[in-house]
């Protein structure tokens, strides 16, 4: 089973290119450590929510943009070993100061439990974070597994759903605060890949009309009011040439 590290980041808009270069420059080392893929999604349409949203999740400032990003690994064991190498490798220190406030970065480790679609060139991302009662894990997985083919039928190239595995409390921000999760809930980090923004915008009205996406509110296994979501444009999408990945 593959493994994902998910990140939410607030980056000054003026630092977009600096951030992109910083992330892309680190990729060769990350790939050397066993990472399969690195994606950095720059906020495109990140709406305000009534209860929660991406902006509040990272305490976004007026001059900043929210990012939805992730790293893919073949397994948790490889991810854990890579983390140890990153902490001890002098090249990490040579990279210099990060072009964002690391204290407000939200991050955690997740096990992939739905991964559908052939992948391919990605031009746009739907990103989601939500809290699901732990008792509803199987009900949520079944719902997500049924929804994934609908997205693919309407032009998405890949749908991924990840269940909380290593999500720690942070000093300033964290995933649990981002969605107001209770002690009996787990964090889900998920995304949908599209070939372009235009393809996503053309598909969305059709998705909303598709009867397979109609659910009885009483049977939905999570609180949708606390789900945070938005669309993002990939500014970095790097992958290992040797990795067996869907986006190859």
List the helices and strands and how they pair.
Elements: E1 3-12, H1 16-32, E2 37-45, H2 54-57, E3 64-73, H3 76-88, H4 90-94, E4 106-116, E5 124-133, H5 137-153, E6 158-166, H6 175-178, E7 185-194, H7 197-209, E8 228-239
Antiparallel strand pairs: 1-3, 1-4, 2-3, 2-8, 4-6, 5-7, 5-8, 6-7
Question: Can you walk me through this structure?
Answer:
The protein is α+β, with helices and mostly antiparallel strands. The protein has a single domain, classed as Alpha-Beta Plaits. 29% of the residues lie in helices and 33% in strands. The chain is built from seven helices and eight strands. It has helices at 16-32, 54-57, 76-88, 90-94, 137-153, 175-178, 197-209, and strands spanning 3-12, 37-45, 64-73, 106-116, 124-133, 158-166, 185-194, 228-239. An eight-stranded antiparallel beta barrel has the order 1-3-2-8-5-7-6-4, surrounded by four helices. It is globular.
